[in-house]
Design a protein that fits this description.
By secondary structure, the protein is an all-alpha fold. It has one domain.
Length: 164
Amino acid sequence: MIPTREQRMAAIEPVAFEYTYLLSAGHHAMFGAAPWRTHAARAFLLHYRNVDNFLLLEERADHILATDYLDVDKARPWDLPTWRTEWREHAQAHLDHLGYFRLEEKQWTPHKWIPRMEAEARVAWKQFYDAMTDREYRAEFVKQVELRRRELVPFHVRVELLYL
């Protein structure tokens, strides 16, 4: 299915939600109170997987893709190297089901991985935004990120503003 322009505009809201709540989950996994830090760390992995799918997935299916918002000939300048090489496969299996792999699972240390992965996601997000040329898409991303940012300000979550 090739999404219509209206579908792409409407899809910006859940995309902005995933990105900003990835930042929120990272913040709370690092600075939240126990036992909520553990829940936030798991949410971080879930939101990261969804942001990864948006930014890096190339298969259409029914996925919302970053390339939906770019000119056809535009190369994707961003990457999520730590996620792609260290955590994607493991997190995918971990989030999808209970399996015996968990008996030998890779050690997830939030204070080691979250700052690095969050920094990469912020850079990739900015590069995605900068690669968009359509003014209406850009304006809607600004609007949706700002709405989410305002929700997160009381919790001291840092969400960069986007500019037209």
